[in-house]
Specification:
The complex is a heterodimer. Chain A is α/β, with parallel strands linked by helices. Chain A is 50% helix and 11% strand. Chain A has 17 helices and ten strands. Chain A is globular and about 65 Å long. Bound molecules: iron/sulfur cluster (2 copies).
Amino acid sequence: MTAAVKDLSQDRQKQMISAHYARLARAKEDGRKVVYTFVPGNLTELLNNLGLLPVLPEINALQSGMRGKTGDYIHIAEKAGHSEDVCTYVKADIGMLKSGNIGPTGEPLPKPDLLLLSYTGCFTFLKWFELLKREYDCPVVMLHVPYQGDGRITEPMRRYVAGQLRDVVIPALETLAGRRVDYDLLRQQLALSARAEDDLVWVLQSARHRPSPIDAYFGGVYYIGPIFTAFRGTTDAVEYYQLLRDEIRQRLKGGLGPVTPEGTLQEEKYRIVVEGPPNWTSFREFWRMFYGEGAVVVASSYTKVGGLYDRGFRHDPSRPLETLADYCMGCYTNLNLPDRIALLEKYINDYAADGFLINSVKSCNSFSAGQLLILRELEKRTGRSGGFIESDLVDPRYFSAANIKNRLESYFQMVEAKRART
Amino acid sequence: MSLAAPEAPAAAGPLAELVGRATRLYEDLDLKAVSDWKAGDASRRAIGFLPVYVPREVIHAAGALPVGIMGGGDQIEIVRGDSYFQSYICHLPRSVIELAVSGRLNALDGFVFPSICDVIRNLSGMFKVLTADKWVHYLDLPQNFDRDGGGTFYRHELATIASGVSALTGIEVTDERLRASIRLYNDNRRALAELQALRVQSPWLVPATEYYLLLRASYLLPPESHTAMVRDYMRHSRDARRNAQDNIRVMVRGAFCEQPPLGLLRTLERAGCYLVDDDFVLGARFIPEPLPEDGDPWQALIDGFLYRSLPTASKYDVNATKEADIVRRARDVRADGVLLIAPSFCDPALLDQPMLARALEKAGIPCTSFKYAEDTGQFQVIREQAGTFADAIKLWGTT
Ligand code: SF4
Ligand code: SF4
């Protein structure tokens, strides 16, 4: 490894995020309204258009996880009557709320003025906001996003979502904001979204090179940050992705591997595709188990939960509501199981992966139910080695480092052995 | 594996015979009843559906038999199903997969998976992979309860089901056929409502296990046969001269999907609880009141779902009335207490529990909660918990 270098893009992202939290901290005194909503199917352009500030509870949960707070938060939620069995993102959020709702900057997050419930790809979102509604006593606006049960977005599905945006979501947001959506501005925002999306896809696809200049899972969670959260459709996001693209271009030119917390990876030994979210409570340790073995994740499904752009979708300024509808319905967890399998198979082939690995998280039925069939099918279809590990997103009780490390080591040995045979 | 006779064994005669028939249907995991029905005419088709609710009228109007798939309960050994699901996923999908891969669902020509939770949703995709030769449809029930929004979308969903089933049967779903099916199911609704009323009025006449078996029978029998069965049951049960016991009256919530085993219901009764209301086999009575039998039959189904279906965890609680709903219902059925039960690892049921428990506590209605799985075999702890609950209510009227 070479020494760790802080990339300019990372600094830029940090600034963007702290500015956002600063705006949130000042929201009440600045008279700005706050909308809680979820990452998959988020409507950032609309919220920004109306000057509303988004808070994403999943991001709070994952950041709390990275800061080692979620063990206590989950305990608080369980003491308040929540089952051990249910999604820990919800419990981490409830526990955080009951502990003063302190955000990552150490300041309390503002209460929501509205809960925007777009339940793309997950039914637990629905329960989550039912619970929050009882805590905050503010309105909930539901955007029902149909699932791609038959593997496609049909015209009635599109009309349904666009119709809800027009008739339910936008009027509610306009009432809250005290002003109307500026459609000219919205078109400009959507054009900016598309530009950033182009660059993000370019970055993700750079992993086709050997060695890959990026890690598309651990590094990937940093790359998707701005576009999945509060910044899609802003010039900030466009500039961030240009910066990132330039940096990756340089790495490609130099034939460099990905950046890790301990510097540039010197030797790419294994190219892996990963399905499933990472663990946040031991994120660094988990990452080290990969780069320590020379394993690079060349593609992942998790980095598509807030938008699946590498299959060609771009926000289209010429049809604002329809394009937002298509975006919502196109997020990864809204794909049916055969499509998820097909996508992962394509990644394994397109990125010339040596194998694939599933990190199955206890919390998330949306991801996890069916993953063992995904494993079988992918092994059958690609002939490449599949691995299966289990952990959780933010519940430290379910991250057994020794166990996972063992499994990963034997998995990499298996990949090695298979390679030797072929 | 066979079942012991239900608690409060029916006296010999027609009641025992009827309960015996319902029990055999419950045990019919190979769907022999469906194969027999299909054998009556080579053109007959049967469509399986998962919990909670599907509009059976549409399937029926397309000439097929809707068949409810409620898992394997405690009646099958899971041999392969476990290798499809991690330990932290509820039990129902593994027994459903077991049924499928062991060929027990072969009598079915297609499957409908309603939107209820991420597990059932993903299971629909698993069926698309594992039973690629069959018609598999995911039914997205609207979470927008507006006629123009969710209603219009739902109309397309209904049409998709109609054309999917019609493609198998060759029978087009005309308005006339759909109205006729609605009439049959309305009759069934009336019969089930009468049964429910009898249970509220005289719970000793309708033991929980028998009520449950009757509900399950509705998932295998053509509607008119089931309606006749329910009516016969009420008649025979009234004639059976069963005596009231000193039991408390309880309402059960949380069992809308994965079902508790019969032994658990029996345990609750033995612990001194009459079950006067519950959400078992919820799809059989999800729209409890009859739908309009004239006019646009599609609209009747749409409005039925949007405005007249029961509250449950898988439906978005648009006006946040679930607390008021459960309290009102508990009072309507004169429940002394409520059992909030839930399958292990069931996000919808378990995430609802704290909200429901708080509402009941606030209203002064005693409640207690526990988890189960469809194959739970040990009831000692549940028996003690339910017994203590019943005793406390009997002694002090509260817990
Ligand atoms: S179940 Fe999964 S997608 Fe849903 S809230 Fe939990 S972690 Fe997120
Ligand atoms: S028991 Fe609960 S989690 Fe399991 S399939 Fe049914 S609703 Fe879903």
